[in-house]
Amino acid sequence: MIFDTHAHYDDKQFDNDRDELLNSMREKGVGTIVNVSAAYESCERVVNMAQKYPFMYAAVGIHPDEVGSLDEERFARMKELFGNDKVVAVGEIGLDYYWDKESHELQKEWFIRQLDLARKLKFPVNIHSREAAQDTMEIMKEHGKGLSGVIHCYSYSKEMAEEYVKMGYYIGVGGVVTFKNGRRIKETVEAIPLTSIVLETDCPYLAPEPYRGKRNNSSYIKYAAEEIARLKGVSYEEVVNQTEENARKLYRV
Ligand code: NI
């Protein structure tokens, strides 16, 4: 069944139908979802949701756009959440020079501290990186040693993807692979082995064609899986089964 490795179901865009939508996932072929925090306030929310739904797990971490709200006290409180048995990863963490909401220095500082936390607690990482290819790679080489994880919503060159694969990381592929202008991610999918790809929505964002621009949800992953199957010349079932196996290895569930 489909394994959605990166979703944001605590988002207010799901406030009107969250329960109904999530309870319909199984019949739509979605077996497992990892609910990922972004802002400090969402850390506790994603953990509470994972406790409510048996098919859901949580990733806890602060997105680079949100690191300005962190301080030592909050970081300590965030760390306590890793004691919950439904928490499977540190994320999403990284660098975002597209929105550039916080200084690069502050983004790097908290990125590195959260990587160190993952190593100390022996958790995989869920990496967000936008318009920050070189800095992310440098930090991952220096501070990501010995870690496992996924480069979520991968948007850089196929060469860099191959480098991450060599380092043992998975590449997260979602709705963008169905876009007409998604040439780069299509090339990446062709270049790397299926054993290094995991599926994700990043919902409510990044809905695939034919729903581009609408609210995304995990059942739409099938459109990304269909495109990956076409690009790799394998069956849809093989994509779903292999990426599920990959995701279980990634998150150890
Ligand atoms: Ni995300």
Helix content: 40-55%
Low-confidence stretches: none
CATH superfamily: Metal-dependent hydrolases
**Gross CATH architecture:** Alpha-Beta Barrel
Order of helices and strands: EHEHEHEHEHEHEHEHH
- By DSSP, the count of extended strands is 8
Rg value: 17 Å
Adjacency order of strands in the biggest sheet: 1-2-3-4-5-6-7-8
Specify the oligomeric state.
single chain
Please tally the helical runs, counting DSSP H or I stretches of 4 or more residues: 9
CATH class: Alpha Beta
How many structural domains in the coordinates?
1
Structural commentary:
The mean pLDDT is 97. Strand 4, helix 4 (104-121) and strand 5 form a beta-alpha-beta unit. The two termini are 14 Å apart. Helix 6 (158-166) runs parallel beside helix 7 and helix 8 crosses helix 9 (236-251). The protein contains nine helices and eight strands. The chain has a single domain (2-251), classed as Metal-dependent hydrolases (TIM Barrel), CATH 3.20.20.140. The chain is an alpha/beta fold. It has an eight-stranded parallel beta sheet. Helices cover 41% and strands 17% of the residues. The site of nickel (II) ion has 5 residues, from loops.
